Amino acid sequence: TRLGGVGSQVRILSSRQVKISTFVEIFFMPQFVYILQSQKDNKYYIGESADVAARLLYHNSGKQRSTKKRIPFRIVLIEEFETRTAALQREKQIKSWKGGVAFKNLIFGM
User: Fold this and answer.
1) How many Cβ atoms sit within 10 Å of the Cβ of residue 4?
2) SS3 call for 23
3) Cα separation, 25 vs 102, whole angstroms
4) Rounded to 5 degrees, what angle do the CA atoms 37, 54, 62 make?
5) Any residues with CB less than 8 A from the CB of 56 and at least 6 apart, and which?
6) How far apart are the first and last CA of the chain?
7) 10-45 pLDDT, tens digit each
8) What CA–CA distance (Å, rounded) separates 30 from 42?
9) CB 36 within 8 Å of CB 47
10) Alpha-carbon distance 6 to 60, whole Å?
11) What b-and-e string marks burial along 45-70, b requiring 16 or more CB atoms within 10 Å of the CB?
């Protein structure tokens, strides 16, 4: 199964820089901010996870209380961060934009 769903496109943005030491490469655990779109009502869900594929499966399984009535979802955007703190800050920023011009520019790549 493709992450974004049949015929969809997923934009993946990465802030990760080239690693200087092998130690950093081995222990680098990227965190992701993702935006899902409900195929039922076309509304968006913004989240953060180390494993976006597993989170998408979890959302689409109906086990997530906040999204179970809106399944299925598809991924519309993924951003990668080196730390969970950075990812959580970005998630909060995107949520503050929800429904506004900045959010639409992010989703549609303007």
Assistant:
1) 19
2) helix
3) 33
4) 60
5) 3, 34, 36, 73, 75
6) 28
7) 655 555 444 444 454 456 789 999 999 999 999 999
8) 28
9) yes
10) 14
11) bbbbbeebeebbeebbeeebeebeeb
Can you name the residues that pair with 79 across neighbouring β-strands?
13, 33
Q: Alpha helices of the chain — where are they, by DSSP H?
A: 22-27, 52-61, 84-97, 101-108
Retrieve residue 62's tokens: 């109906």
- How far is 64 from 61, CA to CA, in rounded Å? 8
pTM over 0.70, yes/no: yes
How would DSSP label each residue in 8-63? Answer: ---EEEE-PPPPSSHHHHHH---EEEEEEEETTT--EEEEEES-HHHHHHHHHHT-
